[in-house]
Amino acid sequence: MLTVGLIVGSTRPNRFADTPVRWLVEGASARSDLRLSVLDLRDFALPFFNEPAPPGYTNGVYTDPKAEAWRKRIGELDAFIATVAEYNHGPTAVLKNAFDSAFLEWQRKPIAFVGYGGVGAARAIEALRGTAIELQMAPIRHEVNIAMEPYLGIVQAGRSLNDYDYLVRGRALMFDQLVWWGEALKAARQRTAAQSSVAA
Ligand SMILES: Cc1cc2nc3c(=O)[nH]c(=O)nc-3n(C[C@H](O)[C@H](O)[C@H](O)COP(=O)(O)O)c2cc1C
Questions:
Q1: What is the b/e burial string over 121-141, where b = at least 16 CB atoms within 10 angstroms of the residue's CB?
Q2: β-pairing, 110-116 with 90-91?
Q3: In the predicted model, is pLDDT for residue 97 greater than 90?
Q4: What's the 85 CA to ligand 1 centre distance in angstroms?
Q5: What's the CA-to-centroid distance between 129 and ligand 1, angstroms?
Q6: Across all residues in the chain, what is the average pLDDT?
Q7: Residue 141 Cα, ligand 1 centroid: separation in angstroms?
Q8: Is 94 close to ligand 1, i.e. is its CB under 6 Å away?
Q9: Can you tell me the distance from the alpha carbon of 38 to that of 68, in angstroms, rounded to the nearest whole number?
Q10: What is the pTM (predicted TM-score) of this model?
């Protein structure tokens, strides 16, 4: 069973993020191949990165206890999904900061994105794909883009994400791909760990 962290990528009051979070939790609960845990950035209250040295120089250790708690939680998980809001054509500052607030714990793990907004947060997701690669993650191709029509349908016309078949299909494909990559990389990480403990 793959353990997946669902990172809630916006923290403002009245955020739309709660809608895709509920929908992803519901979709995940119908599957037996993954266990989803919600990582709400509101709960972690990470400070904006203010470390005296980059984590690459400290073996990934942070001086701030909140960043330490965050990175330890990230280290417990096999794969990630982030809900992505687009703020001025980029990701939210809090989400980018969450990536900067862990280091080794991201490595060799897959991540999928569920974006919403005018163009389904496609521009913000593209930016995050580069961030994920720099962190030695595997960003998976399948993403869910909740673009203007379903976004307004939900916010203004009382519709639900389940009213949009292509989004429901996209969610299933995204989960399928995340599990495939997650299991493959988990096995590879375990193999590497076993080899290095034999060599030690
Ligand atoms: C500061 C700010 C900037 C925004 N910029 C964009 C944008 O560049 N593209 C877009 O599609 N939507 C933009 N929006 C609209 C958001 O897509 C919409 O408000 C969305 O609900 C934000 O996510 P949240 O509700 O989870 O915070 C912006 C919203 C905010 C608050």
A1: bbbbbbbbbebbeebebbbbe
A2: unpaired
A3: yes
A4: 6
A5: 19
A6: 97
A7: 23
A8: no
A9: 18
A10: 0.97
Q: By three-state DSSP, how is residue 193 classified?
A: helix
Domain that holds residue 161: 2-199
Q: What pLDDT was estimated at residue 196?
A: 82
Q: How far is the CA of 69 from the centre of ligand 1 (A)?
A: 28
Nearest of 149, 145, 77 to residue 106 by alpha carbon: 77
147 lines ligand 1 (CB under 6 A): no
Long-range contacts of 119-123 (CB under 8 A, 24+ apart): 119/86, 119/145, 119/147, 119/148, 120/144, 120/145, 120/146, 120/147, 121/84, 121/85, 121/86, 121/91, 121/145, 122/86, 123/86, 123/89, 123/90
Number of domains in the chain: 1
Ligand 1 atom 22, closest CA:
85
* Domain containing residue 123: CATH number: 3.40.50.360
| pLDDT beyond 70 at 39 | yes
